[in-house]
Amino acid sequence: MGIIIAAFATCGKSLLGKKYSNVKDLESSPFKNIMRDDLSIEEQKGTKREPNPLWPQNYYDAINEAVKQYDVVLVQLKSEHLDYFDKHNIKYSIAYPNINNWKEVEKRCVERGNNDAFIKRLKEVFIPYYKDSLKRDYDKLYILNGKETLEDVLKKDGIL
Predict the structure, then answer these.
(1) Which residues of 36-49 are buried (b: 16+ CB within 10 A; e: fewer)?
(2) Using one digit for the tens of pLDDT, what is the confidence trace for 64-98?
(3) Would you state the pLDDT for residue 144?
């Protein structure tokens, strides 16, 4: 049974999922929205999209299946998902950029092609999501300092 890590945007979930066969990045967008074929997932963030009527249960079902097949399952960090984990006694850890490191988060958003609306919304939730995360019943809290990525902190912790 794998571990779940709920990570804030730009921590490196996608890169980690592509690099390691035992890691699954469960990007939430394809579960939450009907996706367009002509734009990447990152380019679609912050745009108006048609909601998927199966959301959020389809995402939770995918998470529950993925932990049976992968050592590490990376998920979107949102209070609604943490509520689900807490309610169902599902163990998880949290990964978050250092709250004094917004400029690095913003730089990563630009580099991966996020639009201004997405970056603005992310900045608005940056501190509130962190404060909410600290109140949770998580197993471990990983704080990414400077240019650290999720891969860096998981290697230090012996998970990768």
Answers:
(1) eeeeebbebbbeee
(2) 999 999 999 999 999 999 999 999 999 999 999 99
(3) 97
Task: Report, as ranges of residue numbers, the positions in the chain whose pLDDT lies below 70.
Answer: 35, 39, 44-47
For the full predicted model, state whether its pTM sits above 0.85.
yes
DSSP string, the chain: --EEEEE-TTSSHHHHHHH-TTEEE--SHHHHEEPPSSS-HHHHTTS--EEPTTTTHHHHHHHHHHHHH-SEEEEE--HHHHHHHHHTT---EEEEE-TT-HHHHHHHHHHTT--HHHHHHHHHHHHHHHHHHHTS--S-EEEE-TT--HHHHHHHTT--
- The CATH number assigned to the domain holding 24 equals 3.40.50
| Residue 41 belongs to domain spanning | 3-156
